[in-house]
Specification:
The chain is mainly α. It has 3 domains: about 60 residues; about 140 residues, no CATH class; about 35 residues, no CATH class. Helix content is about 65%, strand content about 5%. The protein is built from 9 helices and 3 strands, in the order αααβββαααααα. The radius of gyration is 20 Å and the shape is globular.
Length: about 250
């Protein structure tokens, strides 16, 4: 029986529940962070929350659509997706092409539609890595087969960092490392790659004062709850209130 023709299994309920939980927490964080600004600017404290909720519902719709698709078909597009990923990462950095907002150049504007290429890049590099590891199920354990995927990921993460998007760069790198670990990549190689990524991440945080303030707020949000720690402070307060009210 060909691998592509195997019967499709039922979705993982625990994974689905995890996605819904993260989505709910994200909505709470958006409301907590934007309630006052939305009230002042739009006279509606739920303005940004409703927009985020709409996008979340659209995302769930896309998720349910792909639940009924054979994801293995994407392997035929792996090379094209990788090339498209790096093309978009380069385009968004070009002056006059990439859209700048709040000091960051992360978007491509197509008429009234704004697209963030890094979101497409995450999908493209994950598909390419999965395709490559699928072709080398045993070779990856030798170590040298891991190197190209590490360099590809590092290159993409660097271009994303140039867009001043540390969170997406870290998420991409972490995802690829987990994939390599599950494929049987040698732990010493993954350990060195993780150490290098941590050093690069800390350097990126240290170079930007706002990132450093966020890190300090994450470590101790109660130290300055009305400024840098306000988001985490308000979130934790609301979660406690929900817990007691429940």
């Amino acid at each position: 029986m060909r691998f592509e023709n195997r019967a499709k299994r039922a979705p993982d309920f625990l994974l689905f529940l995890t996605v819904l939980s993260l989505l709910a927490i994200g909505l709470v964080m958006v409301f907590s962070a934007s309630e006052y600004a939305a009230l002042v600017r739009f006279n509606d404290p739920f303005y940004f929350f409703k927009r985020q909720l709409l996008y979340s519902l659209l995302g769930l719709g896309v998720m349910f659509y792909f639940l009924n698709q054979n994801y293995r078909k994407f392997k035929n597009l792996a090379g094209w997706l990788l090339g498209l990923s790096f093309l978009l990462l380069l385009l968004v950095l070009l002056p006059g092409v990439g859209h700048v907002s709040h000091g960051a150049q992360r978007w491509l504007k197509l008429g009234s539609l704004t697209v963030q290429p890094s979101e497409i890049v995450k999908f493209g590099i994950v598909v390419f890595t999965a395709w490559g590891l699928g072709r080398l199920p045993a070779g990856v354990r030798r170590g040298r087969e891991v190197i190209p995927y590490l360099f590809i990921t590092a290159g993409a993460a660097l271009l994303i960092l140039l867009q001043r998007d540390l969170g997406t760069a870290m998420a991409l790198a972490g995802t690829i490392l987990v994939m390599l670990f599950c494929a049987g990549a040698p732990l010493p190689v993954l350990g060195l790659a993780s150490l290098g990524g941590m050093v690069a991440g800390l350097a990126a945080i240290y170079r930007e004062s706002y990132r450093w303030r966020r890190l300090m707020a994450f470590i101790d949000p109660w130290k300055d709850p009305q400024a840098s720690g306000s988001i985490l402070f308000n979130l934790s307060t609301r979660l406690v209130q929900v817990g007691f009210s429940g």
